[in-house]
Structures are given as structure tokens and as C-alpha cells.
Design a protein that fits this description.
single chain; 539 residues; alpha/beta; Immunoglobulin-like; TIM Barrel; 2 domains; 12-stranded mixed sheet; 8-stranded parallel beta barrel; 13 helices; 26 strands; 26% strand; disordered N terminus
Length: 539
């Protein structure tokens, strides 16, 4: 009976086997030089201000995940953050420029956000009470979070016409808030100024010369408040969409050493309601378009502000709360991990995902706090990919995307491979460019010695290779039951689910002979760790 059943499985699988294409090729990693470097805490996530009645496309996916009312005592939340062992969290979002801080000599009424027809983004001004700020900081300390806080950059200004706001920034409320924060000993890694006020803005905008002038004032306040402090927070701006002329003008107006970080936002998949979201995610040509923004920002920083660095301060793929049944499913990890890889190649130091929790694009489910697939993608990146970016080349197919970094906290190199093809099974050999050069330069060798030299170029090996069997680590990511819109990610055949105590599950690799080829199944993702890859750039 067992023999018959096994024969049935074999026969049934034949059509699937022949339906797949098989493509052989190589991935060449150059470990001799550094392409770019990220921050140690490259992966970042946001906590937004949106209240529960923020709705898009006849759905209200935010629930109670606002800075104001997020349940900080939920055990899943703390454990999800602690698993990163220092997750960077950005507190900010569209409503931050309407937040008043209930401290000091605040003259305006301080009430919660309310729906308001003529208000910015359809809401009134909101209030952050210091009791809540105290709660948030206790939570940040307990979970080991690194905090970037976005300040209200519209306070004191007035609307001139349409979305243009003018006048000097009234810094009094922000200064009182920052002074309170310092007095309580709360650790803020960086202060960010404004949200999406650059260029033509989203809802509102401010001219770059005025913005630069206000940043000089904010820099003075930071210097005064943190005078004598061992660690001074960075100043991050503008937290908006990239506009070359506006960004250049901002750097020129603010001047040398004022802005530490140029932050920009990316929503390169378009509207959350777009029925073509999945096809965009799986289209390499569409994913490649983001390189234009990354490359241009790198260029203007080098030319006009070499004292600054670039961050993606907010990115959720699809705007207006993300795409329902897309942004919170496995398929979104193709976009998310590709963004992390591409951004790091273009000298991006930090990449903040919109959101940690809230909307359709949260790393955590907004009501159950259970991790969505992208949470595990971000966690694996954070644990495996070091800050040194290496060059990697593969001409197998535009649908096979690859990124390489020095491994995190250990010797060797970690490779991220993304297969966007729905029918091609890629069988790849990882090659070390050092050995390719050595093989090319060898002179007057016999056929046998040439064959041996060529064989050495495959897999992880460097010039110090031995014939001893060594193992590499592989983390293969697929959707549960092969369904791209599954909310359950599968690691090496095992569904990733919280333990009975709500802990993040172990993310265990499979170990494979380092000399064997790498197999990347259709519509799958893999992290490959080569523990002894010879890479001088990794130290």
C-alpha cells in the first residue's frame, strides 16, 4: 500500500516538475572592497499618530495603534521589539505637525485628535500629555528601543495659500517638550523636524529657505539642551518626499553641520487600493525605478552636504495605509527585502518601515499583535546582514535579485537572494571574485591543475580553502501552502508562529555542504550565510 501511494505521489508530481524551468548560473561576490556602509541598526519601524477612525477605501485598518493609545502592556509587542536586540523606532507620521505637547507655557487648548472637515488630513490638532510620554519612555527603555522623535514643524506658522504655509516656526512648545525630556533623562537618539513638508508637500509644504532657517534654530536648541552631555541626539530632516531642488536649497540654507541626516520617504508601489500591487512587487523593472531616487539623493549629499547621511525615514510600499491582503502578506516581502538591499547599496544608513503596528502595512497585526511575514523578513535581515555592503553580480535573470553584506557579528558573508519568477528554479553557484582573478592569472598550468583551480572558484571558498567538508547556513522563505497572500511565512518548511508563551519562534537555518549549488525555488527568498568566505573588506 505504501509503495502504491509513493508511486502515486511521484506520478502526480511529474506535471509540476516539467512545468518549472531550471536555470543554472553563478553569483559572484566581491569581498575585496566596501561598496557602502549602513548603520548598525539599519532596520527601523515607525509608530504613527493616526487614530482609530483614520480610514481609506472604506476600511479603517489602524484600530488602536496610535502613539496616544497603543497598548504598551501587550506582551506580544514588547517581545517583538526585544527580539531585535535594539530596534530603532521612529515616532512620527502625517499628524505629527499638528501635535501639541502638554508641557510648559502652552497657550493653546490640548485635546485629542478629532475628525475635522477643514483640518489638515481631516483631523484637528492633537495633544501629547506628559503622562503618556512617561509611559512611552518606560516602554522604550524596557524594550531597548532606539528612538527617533518627529517634532511639529508647523507650530506658529500660518497658511498662505492652498497647501503653502509661511512664517517662522514657533519653537517654544517643542523646546519645553525637549527640555522636559532631557530633565527626565529620557534617551532620544535623534530629533526629526517635520513630516512630508518638502517640495509640494502632502497636505502642507514650507519653502526650503524658511525650513533651513528654522533648522538652524532647532540645532541651537539641541546644542543648548544637551550641552555637556556625553551623547547629543542627531538632527534629522526633512522627512519628506525627495525633491532635488528643494533638498539642495535646504542644505545650502541651513549650512555646514546643521543637519546630520537627510531623511526621505518612499512609497514606490503607489496607492494601497491599486489592484496591480502584486504585479508591481514581482516586476523587476518596477522595483528598479527606486534606484533613481536613491542615486540622486546620494549625489546631492556628496555635492552639497557631505557632513550628512541618508535615511529612509518612512516607507510602507503602498500609501494610504498600505494594500489590504497584500502589504500584510508574504508577497510584500519581495518588495520589502529588495528595498532593504537596494537602499543599503546607495549608502542609506537607516530604513524605517511604516509601520511597526497600524494600517495594513504593519509588521505586527493591528488587533492581535501577531507578526506578519515582513516582521520575520526584517528580523532575519537585522540578525544576519552586517553593515558592510559588498558588490555582487549575477546575470542569470532580472527576476533573480541578489545582495551581499559582511555577516553580522561573525566572520564571513551573507547573501540575500530573491526569486521573483513564478516558474524558474534557479540553481546557482556562489563564487568568490578573488578566486576568479587568481584562476584568470594563472600561467603555464596543466589541464588538471586548471580544472582544480576552476573548481575552487565555486561556492564560498577563498585562497585558504581546504578539502575539508564545511557547511553553510540557509534560510529559505516561502508562503504557507504556496499562497502568495498568506499571512504565515514558512522558514525551511516550518511555519513561523508564536510559541505558546507568545515568544518569537527560533529562526533556525538548514546546514548544507558549502560546495553544493544553491537552489532557489520559484517565488521564494533565501538568506545564505557563508561562514568562512574570504572577504578582506569584512576585516
Amino acid at each position: 500500500m505504501e509503495l502504491c501511494f509513493g508511486w502515486f505521489l511521484l506520478v502526480a508530481s511529474i506535471p509540476a516538475i516539467f512545468a518549472q524551468d531550471i536555470s543554472h548560473g553563478s553569483i559572484v561576490v566581491d569581498g575585496t572592497m566596501t561598496v557602502a556602509q549602513t548603520d548598525d541598526n539599519f532596520v527601523c519601524a515607525t509608530i504613527d499618530w493616526w487614530p482609530h477612525d483614520k480610514c481609506n477605501y472604506d476600511q479603517c485598518p489602524w484600530h488602536y495603534t496610535s502613539v496616544m493609545n497603543l497598548n504598551l502592556s501587550h506582551p506580544f509587542l514588547a517581545k517583538a521589539i526585544q527580539a531585535f536586540n535594539r530596534l530603532r523606532i521612529r515616532v512620527g507620521g502625517s499628524l505629527q505637525d499638528q501635535v501639541l505637547y502638554d508641557v510648559g507655557n502652552l497657550k493653546s487648548p490640548c485635546h485629542p485628535f478629532q475628525k475635522m472637515k477643514d483640518g489638515l488630513f481631516g483631523f484637528s490638532k492633537g495633544c501629547l500629555h506628559m503622562e503618556r510620554w512617561d509611559e512611552l519612555n518606560r516602554f522604550f527603555k524596557e524594550t531597548g528601543a532606539m528612538v527617533t522623535f518627529g517634532l511639529n514643524a508647523l507650530h506658529g506658522r500660518h497658511k498662505i495659500k492652498r497647501s503653502l504655509w509661511g512664517g517662522d516656526w514657533d519653537s517654544s512648545n517643542a523646546q519645553d517638550f525637549m527640555k522636559y525630556t532631557v530633565s527626565k533623562g529620557y534617551q532620544i537618539d535623534s530629533w526629526e523636524f517635520g513630516n512630508e513638508l518638502s517640495g509640494n508637500g502632502i497636505g502642507a509644504h514650507v519653502h526650503a529657505d524658511q525650513y533651513g532657517k528654522d533648522l538652524v534654530n532647532l540645532r541651537r536648541i539641541i546644542n543648548e539642551l544637551y550641552k555637556g552631555s556625553q551623547s547629543k541626539p542627531s538632527l534629522v530632516a526633512p522627512g519628506g518626499f525627495y525633491d532635488e531642488e528643494w533638498f539642495v536649497k535646504l542644505l545650502q540654507t541651513s549650512g555646514f553641520g546643521v543637519i546630520d541626516v537627510m531623511s526621505h520617504h518612499m512609497y514606490n508601489l503607489g496607492a494601497g487600493v491599486d489592484p496591480k500591487l502584486v504585479s508591481k512587487i514581482l516586476n523587476p523593472d518596477h522595483l528598479n525605478k527606486a534606484a533613481y531616487t536613491f542615486g540622486n539623493l546620494t549625489h546631492i549629499i556628496r555635492r552639497h552636504g557631505p557632513w550628512t547621511s541618508a535615511w529612509v525615514g518612512e516607507s510602507g510600499g503602498a500609501y494610504n495605509s498600505g494594500g489590504a491582503h497584500v502589504s500584510n502578506t508574504f508577497v510584500n516581502s519581495f518588495w520589502y527585502l529588495d528595498q532593504l538591499g537596494m537602499a543599503s547599496k546607495y549608502h542609506t544608513k537607516v530604513y524605517c518601515r511604516q509601520t511597526l503596528i497600524g494600517g495594513n502595512y504593519g509588521l505586527l497585526n493591528a488587533t492581535t499583535f501577531v507578526p506578519n511575514p515582513d516582521y520575520y523578513s526584517g528580523l532575519l535581515w537585522h540578525r544576519l546582514m552586517g553593515k558592510v555592503v559588498l558588490n555582487v553580480e549575477s546575470h542569470a535573470s532580472p527576476f533573480l535579485r541578489s545582495y551581499a553584506h559582511c555577516s553580522k557579528g561573525r566572520t564571513g558573508v551573507t547573501l540575500l537572494v530573491i526569486n521573483l519568477s513564478n516558474q524558474t528554479n534557479f540553481i546557482m553557484n556562489a563564487q568568490n571574485s578573488i578566486n576568479l582573478k587568481l584562476a584568470a592569472n594563472e600561467q603555464n598550468i596543466s589541464r588538471d591543475s586548471f580544472t582544480h583551480s576552476l573548481k575552487k572558484t565555486f561556492s564560498w571558498v577563498g585562497t585558504k580553502a581546504s578539502d575539508d567538508a564545511l557547511l553553510r547556513e540557509e534560510y529559505h522563505l516561502t508562503p504557507k501552502d504556496g499562497y502568495l497572500r498568506s499571512r504565515t511565512m514558512v522558514l525551511n518548511g516550518i511555519p513561523l508562529e508564536l510559541t505558546s508563551t507568545g515568544d518569537i519562534p527560533s529562526l533556525n537555518p538548514v546546514r548544507v555542504n558549502v560546495k553544493s549549488p544553491i537552489t532557489i525555488s520559484p517565488l521564494s527568498i533565501a538568506f545564505i550565510v557563508f561562514p568562512n568566505f574570504e572577504a578582506p573588506a569584512c576585516g
